[in-house]
């Protein structure tokens, strides 16, 4: 019997990464914060590119010769939620594609995807010069307030319609993904918007708890 769902899209920060944000992880490493630019972004006074630019600027103010490899190393110990590999394995054994859709940093997304058998991932990155040094610009692949666009690319790639898609997120920026899915799961939600928009709300330290709602019909 064909599974009810054919694609599961996971947010990364706060869902797969057991920390508020991969960007924030780097901020904490350099002992800086981005609260002012976060507020400006939420209020619509700056766009995604400027938001990333201001974040990267804070790092370069501490160390102006940063390379992509430096950020990769800083992100290496970022904690991840328990049960990622088992969750992906269970879903894929049921014929379900698994992808990461994140406004976070792609170095972390790539590492998690490769280590746990995801089919694909998309996340934002950092622009570099020919020597690999950060230029101060971000590489925008996922608009935070329109993650639906990134999800729709995967739906088209794998030929899975919205009604056979599951979206898993933890904050208001994931609501646009929920609107393009047949099942939406708020996993350890951090705001009321994502809770209100979700079909299922889960609070857990083990990702395997999403399997019940997704595979419930066939368990």
What report would you give on this structure?
Strands 4-3-2-1-5-6-7 form a seven-stranded mixed beta sheet. The longest helix is centred in the first third of the chain and has 15 residues, at 48-62. Helix content is 40%, strand content 19%. It has a single domain (7-215), classed as HAD superfamily/HAD-like (Rossmann fold), CATH 3.40.50. It has helices at 22-30, 35-42, 48-62, 68-75, 84-93, 106-116, 147-158, 175-178, 192-197, 211-215, and strands at 7-10, 97-105, 120-128, 134-139, 165-169, 183-187, 200-202.
Number of strands: 7
Assigned CATH architecture = 3-Layer(aba) Sandwich
- Rg, alpha carbons: 17 Å
Number of domains: 1
Which structural class best describes the helix and strand composition? alpha/beta
Largest sheet: 7 strands, mixed
Q: What are the segments in which pLDDT stays under 50 over at least 5 consecutive residues?
A: none
Query: If you average the pLDDT, what whole number results?
Result: 95
Helix-strand pattern? EHHHHHEHEEHEHEHEH
CATH H level, superfamily name: HAD superfamily/HAD-like
Q: So what's the overall shape?
A: globular
Please give the count of helices: 10
Strand order of the largest sheet: 4-3-2-1-5-6-7
End-to-end CA span:
12 Å
What is the CATH class name? Alpha Beta
